[in-house]
Amino acid sequence: MVSAYTDVLIFFLVGAGFVALNLTLGRLLRPHNPYPEKLTPYECGEVPVGEGQAPFNIRYYIFALLFVVFDVEVVFLFPWAVVLRELGMYALVLMVIFLFMLVDGLVYAWKKGVLRWV
Amino acid sequence: MSDWLWGLFQSWGWSESAFNVVMGVIKGLLVTTFLAVNALVLVLMERKVSGRIQRRPGPLRTGPRGLLQTFADAIKLLSKEDIVPSGADVAVFVLAPMVFFAAATALWIVIPFGPQTIVQDLNIGLIYISAVTGLSVLAILMAGWSSNNKWSLLGAMRSAAQLVSYEIPLVLSIVAIGMMAGSLRLSDIVAAQQGGITNWFIFPQILGFLVFFTAGLAEINRAPFDLPEAESELVAGYNTEYSGMRWAIFFLAEYANLVAFSALAATFFFGGPTGPIFPPIVWFLIKTYFFIFVAMWIRWTLPRIRVDHLMNLGWYVLIPLALINLGWTGLYVVLRG
User: Fold this and answer.
1) Measured between CB atoms, does B172 come within 8 Å of chain A?
2) pLDDT at site B20
């Protein structure tokens, strides 16, 4: 069973190695002639204003938080999904109650307007 | 082939774990080659399909009927200067395409090419899929943050918001597949749909399929959900500062993800790589390329969606639909036994 997951590691390494190989091949072919103007970050041809890592809207964090809640919920759903057929109606009712509480939270966020983008 | 190699390794006195590692590397190289060849075909196919839809012939000049166009593109990209912008976080900048492509490769471990032809038939296949596809968010954030460019950062943040929002309906529709099959193993999911078209999951899961397909298109940044790379407003988003081969790696990984998504759609809802007359690998290619064609067709049919509409569609429409589908599937599974 452990060997099944060594393949996962190997695939990650092969994927990264493929990228490294391509970039090394390209190094033999491509020109290399950097100068400061060429290396400035692209800002439609203007001289860049301020830092590249500019501040961004707090709203992104709210979406990330909501995502975490639902993603953790899904972790509970997977084992339940596998054995649902054996456990029958009882397990289904329990999961509907569990999901109802989470959906309640989503509806609350919805009514509060935090899901509105603008 | 595998038995022959194992015999050879035994005669050299190598251990079984060393053999497994070598087999893993061979499989990895085969899959990366498959993905690279697919990308070559798909770039041309995309241009030909978009050309035909717009009533023009597409590329014609390079080689017979434009067949060598992609090779010319690849050579051009290889010979382009590689620019790392000043002020960039070089280590992260270099790692981002690697993470993106490595995740796209690793996803292929669980995708069935035939009923039993899978690299590793992991017993947590469905969880593995949702875990590995989540890695692309990380790669996009790495690329956007390390570029020291405002377009890249905004594109990456928008992309991350889009990916996490659409991951929820996507994973919920995958859970429903696990309920139908009673297993998270992809070979079991294929086996559960054997015995004729009526056993395909598409019929009880039509709602799940619509949610899966829509959310999947958003997950792989295909139009009409290609906001992260909206050329007209974000100047290509997270990969603004990438050039030459480094940029091509992102491109390649996106095509690898498109193929994986189409193969998964076929596996989950349309019986997987099985069918009459032809061998499984032919059915795998037929079904996969059908969904790739549909994705290209949608690209030239629907305009790009606005960013607030995108988030509304995800949270107000797809997640409730996915939950309804989950309840329906639960009833279906329990009542049919």
Assistant:
1) yes
2) 79
Task: Give A-chain residues touching B247 at CB under 8 angstroms.
Answer: none
Cβ under 8 Å to B: A residues 51-110 = 51-54, 56-57, 60, 63-64, 67, 70-71, 74-75, 77-78, 81-85, 88-89, 92, 95-96, 99, 103, 106, 110
Inspect the interface and report whether the beta carbons of B83 and A18 lie closer than 8 Å: no
Are residues B45 and B117 located together in one domain of the fold?
no
Instruction: Determine the structural domain holding residue B21 and report its residue range.
Output: 1-79
Residues of chain B contacting residue A95, judged by C-beta atoms under 8 Å apart: 330
The tally of CA atoms less than 13 A away on the side-chain side of residue A8 is 15
CB–CB contact A53 B120 (8 Å):
no
Cα separations (Å) of B233 from B60, B226, B263?
A: 31, 12, 32
- Which of B58, B79, B87, B16 minimizes the C-alpha distance to B241? B87
Q: What share of chain B is helix, strand, coil (3-state, %, to 5)?
A: 75, 0, 25
Q: How confident is the model at residue A27 (pLDDT cuts 50, 70, 90)?
A: confident
Which of the listed residues B79, B108, B131 is the one where a domain comes to its end? B79
* A107 vs B contacts (CB less than 8 Å): none
Q: Which of A5, A11, A66, A95 to mutate to test the interface with B (most CBs of B within 10 A)?
A: A11
Alpha-helical regions (H) of A30-88: 36-39, 59-87
Least reliable range by pLDDT among A3-12, A18-27, B233-242: B233-242
**In percent, how much of chain B has pLDDT > 70?**
97
Whether the pLDDT of residue B215 is over 80: the answer is yes
Judge: B85–A43 Cβ closer than 8 Å, yes or no: no
SS3 B248: helix
| Structural domain contains residue B290 | yes
* Residue B35 counted as domain residue: yes
Between B207 and B6, the more confident residue is B207
Q: What type of residue sits at position B288?
A: T
What's the predicted TM-score (pTM) here?
0.87
**Range of weakest confidence among A23-27, A33-37, B89-93, B218-222:** A33-37
The Cβ of residue B227 has, within 10 Å, a number of other Cβ atoms equal to: 22
Which carries the bigger pLDDT value, residue B119 or residue A82? A82
How big is the A-B interface in CB pairs under 8 Å?
228
Residue B213 has what pLDDT? 92
